[in-house]
Automatic annotation (TrEMBL):
GO molecular function: 1-phosphofructokinase activity; ATP binding
Statement: the UniProt record of this protein carries the keyword Kinase: yes
Family, per entry: Belongs to the carbohydrate kinase PfkB family.
PANTHER family: 1-PHOSPHOFRUCTOKINASE, 1-PHOSPHOFRUCTOKINASE-RELATED
Sequence ranges assigned to domain Carbohydrate kinase PfkB in this UniProt record: 27-299
Origin: domain of life: Bacteria
Listed name of the protein: 1-phosphofructokinase
EC identifiers of the protein: 2.7.1.56
Keyword Kinase: yes
UniProt function note: Catalyzes the ATP-dependent phosphorylation of fructose-l-phosphate to fructose-l,6-bisphosphate.
Species, as recorded: Deinococcus hopiensis KR-140
Pfam families (UniProt xref): PfkB
Keywords, in A-Z order: ATP-binding, Kinase, Nucleotide-binding, Transferase
Length: 321
């Protein structure tokens, strides 16, 4: 008998990620690629897969095109993720990831996704109104496809928090703007620095400005704001603490999903009742470990524990003086 899920991830706009290895590729030229692989993806799908790797019982929902659902169904079976996706006509979008190990970067080309009907959206909302028994954490993840209003996450946050659930949010653009300007904020918000700047409509050029912006969200009802800043690390802020976590150096296979791994790490830390410093170490280790793999996969526990021990954690207030 399967263990009831503790976490439900929500991915309204999943994608098949086509990752192409193309070292030294040049824009506007004919380029040779070294390898390619296709993975079922989308932010919430990745978060669910990574939590399952850690040993958390997790369910995943969202809107999934029937025409190419098979890779997602295979992933869920292999990881032991409970499939609660609403099937819709058509095919999930394809996201192209061009990985250049020569330069150490990844270029993303993301298509908009299926246009969602009112019926499909209502079916998803019905799933969220009656999640699987045992779920106490809901992670709202990724972009919204055409047909889903930009206020969708903001409205779901208020309703889910009203049910007493812990809500994590990782999105961008207008969806993040609406959620951060709503009356009720999620308990966990994890934008990257560029997403936060866009949502707030201003540049955050100093550590003090980033810290002040995070603390403003805490004052307005968030409980943990994590601002990821790529290889520099991440700022983690609660009502009582503010820390900056710097990751250890690792051999990068692909940076795709590093933010999703951080969300998974923060959720697992919440489930285990960890303090902020331990949560910062675990989330940073998840992120560092995930980029040593292609696709949404974590290294073994022992390797993650070793990475967590190498994370440098310091007071964020000390960095602003």
């Amino acid at each position: 008998m399967s263990v009831p899920p503790r976490v439900l991830t929500v991915t309204p706009n999943p994608a098949l990620d086509l990752t192409v290895q193309a070292g030294g590729w040049q824009r506007g030229e004919v380029n040779a690629a070294q390898a390619a692989q296709q993975d079922a993806g989308g932010k919430g799908v990745n978060v669910a897969a990574l939590l399952a790797d850690w040993g958390v019982s997790v369910a995943a929902t969202g809107l999934l095109g029937r025409d190419n659902a098979a890779p997602f169904e295979t992933l869920f079976r292999e990881k032991g993720v409970i499939d609660e996706f609403v099937r819709v006509p058509g095919a999930a979008r394809v996201g192209l990831k061009i990985v250049d190990r020569t330069r150490g970067d990844t270029t993303d080309l993301n298509l908009p996704g299926l246009t969602v009907s009112a019926r499909a959206l209502a079916d998803l909302q019905a799933t969220l109104r009656a999640p699987p028994p045992g779920v106490n954490v809901v992670a709202l993840c990724g972009s919204l496809p055409p047909g889903v209003p930009t206020t969708f996450y903001a409205e779901e946050v208020a309703r889910l928090r009203g049910q007493g659930r812990f809500v994590a949010l990782d999105t961008s653009g207008q969806a993040l703007h609406a959620a951060l300007h709503a009356a009720v904020l999620p308990q966990l918000v994890k934008p990257n620095i560029h997403e936060l700047e866009a949502a707030l409509g201003r540049s955050l050029t100093t550590e003090a400005e980033v810290l002040a912006a995070a603390r403003d969200l805490i004052r307005r009802g968030a409980e943990l704001v994590t601002v990821s800043q790529g290889e520099r690390g991440a700022l983690l802020v609660t009502a009582h603490e503010a820390l900056f976590a710097r990751p250890p150096r690792v051999t990068v296979q692909s940076t795709v999903g590093a933010g999703d791994a951080m969300v998974a790490g923060l959720i697992s830390a919440h489930l285990d009742g960890l303090g902020l410093q331990s949560a910062a170490r675990r989330a940073t280790a998840f992120s560092a470990g995930s980029i040593t793999r292609l696709g949404a996969h974590l290294p073994p526990h022992a390797e993650l524990d070793a990475l967590a021990a190498q994370v440098q954690v310091e007071s964020a207030d000390a960095l602003t003086h």
